[in-house]
User: Fold this.
Amino acid sequence: MSRIHLLDDEAINQIAAGEVVDRPASVIKELMENAIDAGASTVRVDLSSDSREITRIRVVDNGSGMEAADACLAFTRHATSKLKSGRDLTHISTMGFRGEALASIAAISRVTLVTKARDSEEVAGTRVVIAGGEVLESTETGAPEGTSIAVEDIFFNTPARRKFLRSRQTELTHIYGVAEHLALANPEVSFRLFHNGKEKISARKAKDLRETIGYLRGSASARDLLPMKSQTPYMQISGYLAKPQTSQTNSHQIYIAVNRRPVTSSQIARAVRDGYGTLLPKNRFPVAYVGLTIDLAQVDVNVHPTKMEIRFSDEGAVTAAISSAVREALSGQDLSAEGEAPLSRPAPFPEQKDEKKEEIPSTPGVASTEVAYRPASQHFRLSATDTQLRLSEIPEEEEIRNLPEMEVLGQVDETYIIAKTRGNEELVVIDQHAAHERILYDQLCRRRDTEEGRSQELLVPVPVTLRPEQAAALAGALPLLKAEGFVLEEFGRETYAVRAVPMVLGKRMGTEILEDMISDLLAEDMRSANERQEKITSTIACRAAIKAGATLSREQMTRLLDQLSRTEHPYTCPHGRPTIVTYTRARLDLIFRRT
Ligand code: ADP
Ligand code: MG
Assistant:
């Protein structure tokens, strides 16, 4: 007897449904997408739930509607009005095209469809009730133009799937995410979502994306966004970027739409993040809204049943264009942190520990340098600041100033510089270490390609002995270190002689910093040479920068601000921490309740 047999239709539909509809949020997604494809200008979602689960979903649109015959056919698997043949797959402009969603939803729930076609001969509308894939009712009914689909008893006949649903709140969170993403991709459509009668999302018809963001996130945060716009021969990039201060621990707040289709793409998210470069701390992600309009033939949307993934014919070109569009949008912008930070408690930045107040090098792994080195360092400490500042001088010809002119008022706790802007007299607080780090970082980057003035020879070469894995990491990074001004000579397998160090480090340190960099190189999973170089440069900048606790004269502070204003990104240190916090008059009035 044969052991293989064909499955019946019900089983086939349930299996296929599992791919399209894996949770209530996917039902909402498919129904909202159909409404958009039907040309609706308003879409309303109603959710009902009891204390445990979502009991009913209804999506109502004012789109094209369906005639009676189509209304029944719509629930058949692979029935669609959006695709005629396989050839059409190369230029899909609609959200749907697989003809699977309604069939899948109807296979695992009870669906009531009420629809009436726009501009049709048919006088009445149509009502279809279908449960577990079986048509229970198909009748004429009075109905407004458009479509209403109600879904109940979700997963009633697929207990396995039902068991894996998360808490009601988790499912709601997913639903809100899906609805918002669709709203962001379609600003000209009005979306409203209600849960148990309470309005949860209201994205009215908007003239542009910023307005939609305003509806969803509040007008204050929408106002603070920086616009991005860029064009390549076959692609248009547009969107809005949040300032670096609102950074996130993951990339979930990078909303991406490709030809108005909300998609998830770790490559695009990465490209957006790369565009922020050192404006963000490592492992932090920006808030960003990115829209691509790209030749339909250049994208493949038929990757997965949920249609959330896409492929590009030239992914490298797309991500490169996005990174540079982001970079361009951020450059020259006022990225200063608003003076709110001290009132709300800012999240600790991950790299805060990098700044070591302690000046004496502690280098357990580089034992042999310690003896040779420690006395020199202690001696140097007394006058380090001035030398450090002088070493970081940015050439005068760099005339572009990226900060308003400021007058120094004083120093607080040997850590913060207090200043006011000339003219409008805003109060400005500057983190001296972060500011100097930024100056040094810029200078290191600028000198990287020149031979001159970037390296200084040590009077006596310093031997460094490393553990094997440290030596291996160092060997791989030698060209990168050389680019920064280190001259290292290999002595046997795990010993190096340091002959020269980057100029900015001064003579006082130079070798213990190797330990820092090596542990970075070991710890980080850094893919590109660029990223590694960046990390090395910021480590050098951090080590060489004046520390919190260093007393500065007024003249030194003025010079520091002057140099900072001539850097390209004066508002953040290379780790992405803010360098400057500004209190406007309005902000001060608010704090003192003068308003
Ligand atoms: P797809 O969207 O991939 O075509 P669906 O199963 O989601 O497949 O829908 C099947 C068909 O039903 C669609 O092609 C469309 O013609 C019709 N349809 C579904 N929802 C609507 C709606 N809200 N308004 C008008 N027509 C709809
Ligand atoms: Mg569809």
